[in-house]
Design goal:
four-stranded antiparallel beta sheet; 7 helices; alpha+beta; about 325 residues; single chain; three-stranded antiparallel beta sheet; Tetrahydropterin Synthase, Chain A; about 20% strand; about 45% helix
Length: about 325
């Protein structure tokens, strides 16, 4: 495995002064040598040409690094190091300098990126474009099809691993993040009632686990995952209506359960209050009738209609 090495280049201001000196000096020497008497000196001609050629080659050694940017230096295929500190430098003109951004990036899973279009000389004439992310369809732990997507925030921390350990580190991040999201969605149910981790009910736990899973896959690419968040989560359209009915039924059952529990408590409290204050003595049949009437009033989802009994309970 190739490990990143720090390279400390020389400041470029001194060489920036030397280049015009070589150019002007070589040109002046050439003019003086051609016009000298009794004739030009062949050695001085080669010296002046060498000065101009040296100045031209020196121009390729200048290096400007912006903040949160880097240059990976190679000499005929041999990795020499990485410059991360911003500034103006001069390095060996024969170094090949690969630019690599250290800025924080983000993308949404399911998005597609078109490649750069180049001309015959290899120059980029049209940069690639990224389309909007589309949710990925995957089955949760219970086998229900769901649509899910996530936003991943990441940055390059090891330039050597990013360039030399994987073919295209940006594409590698996208593919591995998509794979980690699919695996995570298949390990948990969409929703749960017994307080276990679910995709909808345990958002923070799921996002933390997603970040860990993606980081494990991207360690070999020199990438640090800063954050991973689920941006879209829903049942697939083919089962969304059925799942909505199930959720509505569960909500109705839960509400009815709470209403009945409260009504029973109120009836019990009313009977205890009547007996404690000796307001009225009720036999079992009258208690049953009273309980029935109170439960109907308290548990009904409509307004009850009062009925005046002109007789007795037994008539």
């Amino acid at each position: 495995m190739i490990v990143e090495k720090k390279f400390t280049p020389k400041p470029g201001w001194g060489m920036l002064v030397l280049v015009p000196v070589l150019l002007i000096g070589g040109l002046a020497l050439l003019i003086w040598n051609v016009n000298r008497f009794p004739g030009p000196n062949i050695f001085l001609i080669f010296v002046s040409i060498g000065m101009g050629l040296s100045a031209f080659i020196t121009l390729f050694g200048f290096l400007a690094v912006a903040p949160n940017d880097s240059r990976v230096l190679l000499l005929f295929g041999d990795y020499k190091g990485t410059v991360k500190e911003s500034g103006f430098y001069w390095v060996n003109p024969f170094f090949s300098k690969k630019k690599l951004s250290l800025r924080i990036r983000n993308f949404e899973t399911g998005s597609t990126t078109s490649s750069d279009r180049k001309n015959e000389a290899g120059q980029v004439v049209e940069k690639g474009k990224r389309s909007g992310g589309k949710p990925s369809k995957v089955n949760d732990r219970d086998g229900n099809p769901i649509d899910i997507s996530a936003v991943v925030v990441w940055k390059v921390t090891d330039t050597a691993e990013a360039l030399f350990e994987v073919d295209d580190f940006e594409h590698f991040v996208e593919v591995q993040s998509e794979a980690a999201l699919r695996v995570l969605a298949s390990r948990h149910p969409y929703d749960s009632e017994d307080h276990e981790i679910s995709l909808r009910g345990s958002t923070q736990e799921v996002c933390d686990q997603l970040q860990i899973d993606i980081q494990e896959r991207l360690d070999k690419a020199g990438v640090n995952v800063i954050e991973a968040r689920i941006s879209h989560l829903a049942y697939s359209p083919e089962i969304a209506a059925a799942m909505l009915q199930r959720q509505q039924a569960q909500a109705v059952v839960a509400a009815r359960t709470q209403i009945v529990a409260g009504a029973v408590g109120m009836v019990e409290m009313a009977l205890e209050h009547l007996e404690r204050d000796n307001i009225i003595e009720l036999d079992d049949e009258r208690k049953a009738s009273m309980v029935s009437n109170l439960l109907v009033v308290l548990c009904s989802d409509r307004h009850t209609q009062p009925v005046i009994n002109t007789g007795s309970l037994y008539n």
